[in-house]
Amino acid sequence: GRHVVLALDCAANEWVRDGGYRFPKAKAARTLAAADLIALYARLAGRYPIASIEVPVLKLPAQLPPGLSF
Question: What is the pTM of this model?
């Protein structure tokens, strides 16, 4: 994180299936709710130096995890 930060362009609008978000290249079929997908982003941001996440979900919830903003 000292010299490199990451920016993700998730294009989550492309993942919408069955009332949730389905990972297009996942080995096992997995559909997440928006809140679960945001929780995943929060875990990733806690582990990696992520500076920006574009199009994280179609509609952001009113409350986000502490320290996370889109």
Answer: 0.74
